[in-house]
Amino acid sequence: MEAPAAQGELLREFTKREKDFMLLALDEGRKALKEGEVPVGCVIVHRRRRADAGGGAGEDSRVDTGDDGNDDVVIATGYNKTNERRDATLHAEVVAIGKIMDQLRQSADQDPRPLRTRWTELFAESELFVTCEPCIMCAGALLHAGIGKVYFGCSNERFGGCGSVLRLHDQSFPGLAGYPCVSGLFVEEAIQLLKQFYLDGNPNAPNPKRPLATASSGEEEPSSVQPAPQ
């Protein structure tokens, strides 16, 4: 189920293309859930012209939309790895951005332009689909990366950087232009992933802060929030 678009766009129905990419992000979130991570997942999609012979970066999962002369290419996927890596910064969005930067460095022999030029061009032509509103840290990282557009599912009412707490996507700083943001795509599915995580219990959280859920207590975290990493 998806709610109407919001966060800066007129209310409208989501397209099949938008739904398909958010479904891929939800798949990434399910991977996180299986690994005991906060279940937030994302994909970054490059809008590549069909006449373009290549030169991008990433996993290159191509989808021909057939409607605007573009091929949509998934250039990175990501899900939370804060527990696995013992690194509180490794949210889904940061993981995906890191993959793209690694790939751009490795492809330097194919494109002699400066790294900053190549990443600026690539991110400006790309869109992020993420199951939960980016936190303030991730919203800032996306601003610095120069992402073209962000879609997210449920809101992050405690830490959200795209409308819930701060509106970093609306900010304009020297050399940073901000980015449009659309919310509410498969919001219920995103919330259910988070509910399942807290129903199962977060073994990495301090007991006084987030006790494990039990059948008798029914305790769980608020369903619309991407919690701070543990």
From TrEMBL:
InterPro entries: CMP_dCMP_dom (IPR002125), Cytidine_deaminase-like (IPR016193). One of its GO terms (biological process) is tRNA wobble adenosine to inosine editing. Residues 202-230 are annotated as: Disordered. Keywords: Hydrolase. Pfam families: dCMP_cyt_deam_1. Residues 16-173 form the CMP/dCMP-type deaminase domain. GO terms for molecular function: tRNA-specific adenosine-34 deaminase activity. This is Cytidine and deoxycytidylate deaminase zincbinding region domain containing protein.
